[in-house]
Design a protein that fits this description.
There is one protein chain. This protein is α/β, with parallel strands linked by helices. Helix content is about 50%, strand content about 15%. The chain contains 13 helices and eleven strands. It has a five-stranded parallel sheet with strand order 2-1-3-4-5, sandwiched between helices. Strands 7-6-8-9 form a four-stranded parallel sheet. It is globular and about 55 Å long. The relative contact order is 0.11. The N terminus is likely disordered.
């Protein structure tokens, strides 16, 4: 319609119509200006949040999309590529995974960073040294939650076996102190080499009703996991944790945080930073689900409750014990 109006108004060699043409054009420009101005202002006023991906394109795209949905109009996500440098010291950066975090940290040690898909032991020191400037949404599942997942898979269980290396012993100490309140007890078994692993595992299986696998790459890695699982299942013992990916590899069950829960908390951390200039402390997501390997359960003749029921029972038991201790 606009083009037809202009066609009628703009006629060559028609000097009497030229003033009206100018007026018409000015009116059209004024009519279109508010919409254009608002769009430009909205884009200018949106806070920039930079994103450094893990290198896993499907994962990066999924996390970025969910985070953008959670942020809404609060911020605009701007990807940083390998050949780019961080622009603006005050702009927060989302790092997806430990490699991305390390990359940004090397690029600019003063950059405010929110780390996703990182485990607590990796990021804890950085966050302690730079409170409010470095934060994270933890990817690993709290060990207590994993232990209780095993308990609801095996209601008769009372003893938990823990395999650890000398370097990872410390991360289990809090769990060992917490478990008696849940009618469980745990013992650590140390293996510092591949030669020690299976003999140590056999002793652990003799003690525990199930093995709780923590995020310890020295023990639970692609090279060892097959031998660990075969040894356990030949003795009719189950392995719980450390993550959803290991369930696909043959672990019976694991709790895990769904991506929407992680990105929801990440968006809240970013909004706090944009409003106050500091991140909240690193934290675990507020929701967990349970993944189960049904084939393994059938092989070991373990009746499976519904996954939703397990997750709900774990939540309620943790809440009950915590409220009772207040």
């Amino acid at each position: 319609m606009t083009s037809s109006i202009l066609a009628d108004l703009v006629q060559p060699n028609d000097h009497q119509r030229r003033p009206s043409v100018v007026v018409a054009l000015m009116c059209l420009l004024l009519l279109s200006w508010p919409a254009t101005g608002v769009a430009q202002n909205n884009k200018t006023n949106a806070s920039a949040v930079y994103v450094v991906g893990s290198g896993n394109t499907p994962l990066d795209q999924h996390v970025t999309r969910l985070l953008a949905e959670q942020l809404g109009d609060a911020a605009t996500l701007v990807p940083i590529r390998d050949n780019q440098r961080l622009v603006g010291l005050d702009s927060p950066v989302v790092a997806i995974g430990p490699v991305a975090f390390t990359k940004i940290r090397q690029m600019n040690r003063d950059a405010p960073i929110l780390a996703l898909m990182v485990e607590k032991p990796f990021i804890k020191g950085y966050a302690t040294r730079s409170p409010g400037q470095v934060s994270a949404i933890y990817y690993d599942v709290p060990l207590l939650r994993q232990a209780l997942t095993g308990k609801f898979m095996l209601p008769q269980a009372t003893r938990v076996a823990l395999l650890a290396s000398t370097e990872s012993v410390e991360r289990y100490e809090d769990l060992i102190d917490l478990l008696p309140a849940y009618n469980l007890q745990a013992r650590l078994f140390i293996a510092d080499s591949d030669d020690q692993l299976i003999p140590t595992l056999v002793r652990a299986l003799t003690y525990g009703d199930f093995v709780l696998a923590g995020s310890d790459d020295a023990i639970y890695n692609p090279r060892n996991i097959k031998h660990i699982l075969l040894t356990a299942y030949r003795r009719n013992k189950i392995v719980i944790g450390p993550s959803q990916a290991y369930v696909k590899a043959g672990v019976l069950a694991s709790s895990y945080a769904p991506f929407p829960a992680m990105t929801e908390m990440a968006a809240n951390h970013l909004k706090v930073y944009l409003a106050e200039g500091q991140f909240p402390d690193p934290d675990y997501p507020g929701e967990y689900r349970v993944e189960v390997n049904e084939q393994v359960a059938r092989s070991l003749n373990i009746p499976l409750p519904k996954r939703e029921w397990i997750a709900k029972q774990v939540d309620e038991l943790i809440r009950s014990v915590e409220e009772g201790s207040e």
